[in-house]
Amino acid sequence: MKNRCAFLNAQHEFTIEEREIPVPKDDEVLIQIVANGICGSDIHFYAEGRLGNFVVTKPYIPGHEASGIVAGVGKEVTDFKEGERVAIEPGIPCDRCSYCKSGRYNLCPSVVFLSAPPINGTFCDFICVRSDFVHKIPGDMPFEHAALIEPAAVAVHAVNRAGNINGKGCAIFGAGPIGLLTLQAFKAAGGGNTICIDMLDNRLELAKTLGADEVINVNDGRDLTDIADIIFETAGSPSATAQLFTAARAGGTVVQVGWPAGNVVTMNIADFIEKELDYVSVNRYANAYPAAIRYICDGRIRVEPLITQTYSFEEIQEAFKFAKENAKEVIKIVVKN
What we know:
CATH architecture of the largest domain: Alpha-Beta Complex
Number of helices: 11
Largest sheet: 7 strands, mixed
Oligomer: single chain
């Protein structure tokens, strides 16, 4: 048996190549990948060759929303055994710096994040991951659902960053995968009235199905001033980001989850100061996987409705091409090995 690996090059093309199955280090687990979600960042690397400071300069393996089966363990690993079903937390920190020691390991300057070029990711058959960033999943959780634990963890972390949400409502700009997961994570954690804002009616209809109390299509021209105590931006939209301080009520909190194109956005600082708002950002997640797994298991977060297309590993080029060319039809694509 060989390890099939899907390499993406700077010309936006995939090639599937066979490599040797890796051997886990003493503290690692060898995982046979069963399912991968395609993340928005993967699409950026495919379509544009970069995201932020990360640039595709040579072929690499994308993917970081992954689940699979333990196929081997390093000699120091005692809490996993072959055949167990797992999900991968793809950001591996140093565990030694001040950020790691304070619990904010997502800010570790030495973090190794699977699929951030040139680091290879999970679109392969086998990968080795440090055992403390591998999470067991229940036997009845479908692997394609488990692949969405990673984006669900982003949503959980976003809600955590909002602070005390008891008795508060929120508005979520963007009803894509992260927005719909943030909606559910907010409700799961005890949040109140939730408004979802997008420009696509099909996504807003799904938001209502998943628990939104109100939906707004931005094309309707509604005034979005002072609409909620907590505002989440999950669309990565410069125009949405520019409205955040106006949309928040006085004393509220704005949570920047999406990464606006171009990196620089003009915002109304007068609203920010006069309303005495808290403005916080989200950089992936920390300590969010246990809650994400629990919420998916008990149904507080439903991921199945988010999976709009499924492809086989051999169809990975077609999967990425469809995601790029049909953004209005895609919420989450899952690739199954």
